[in-house]
Design a protein that fits this description.
72% helix; single chain; mainly alpha; 7 helices; disordered N terminus; 179 residues
């Protein structure tokens, strides 16, 4: 009976360790965003507006390059690396594996993280349009998409026995206890 329990637990990570891992990873992400704030807030307060006059596509690209890509790189380097885990997952004793228990390839990890960060990117694009007071007709569907994708991912994580979020389902990966 104990062996059966271990086998079932080895196929999935419990919710608590996943939340702990996410918390540690969010510390890294918040540190990066704080560094951006340390650079850009004083410029803004000093009257320097390096982004004024840019079109929405340029602003979208800038937001992506400054925030989403570095976070995506952090996630991808960790999960595609030798530990198969970000710093947070390592601290929580978790790794990313395929549904067959193998090491996922780099392309699978990249796609996994693109799907994971898509709600964040949609939200950035919506907020930049709303803050600029234009393109509201585009901002609203982006905001709905951000909340819908995040909501589906959270719902899957909570209801699935294997705790697979949307990004895991799409690329057939799972977060499992490290062995």
């Amino acid at each position: 009976m104990l062996n059966e329990l271990r086998k079932s637990q080895a196929g999935r990570a419990a919710l608590r360790p996943r939340l702990v891992a996410a918390g540690w990873d969010y510390l890294v992400i918040v540190a990066w965003l704080a560094l951006l704030a340390v650079v850009f807030v004083p410029l803004y307060l000093a009257g320097v507006r390096p982004f004024d006059g840019l079109g929405m596509v340029s602003i979208d690209l800038l937001i992506t390059v400054l925030s989403v890509l570095p976070v995506g790189a952090y996630l991808t380097i960790g999960e595609a690396g030798r530990h198969q885990a970000t710093w947070g997952k390592r601290r929580a004793g978790l790794v990313v594996a395929t549904t067959r228990g193998k090491r996922p390839g780099a392309v699978r990890i990249v796609v996994r993280n693109v799907v994971k960060l898509l709600p964040w990117q949609c939200a950035h694009m919506a907020v930049s349009r709303l803050a600029g007071g234009h393109e509201v007709i585009i901002a609203m569907p982006l905001l709905v998409a951000a909340y819908a994708l995040a909501g589906v991912s959270i719902a899957l994580l909570l209801v699935r026995r294997d705790r697979a979020a949307l990004h895991d389902v799409v690329v057939a990966t799972r977060v499992v206890p490290s062995q």
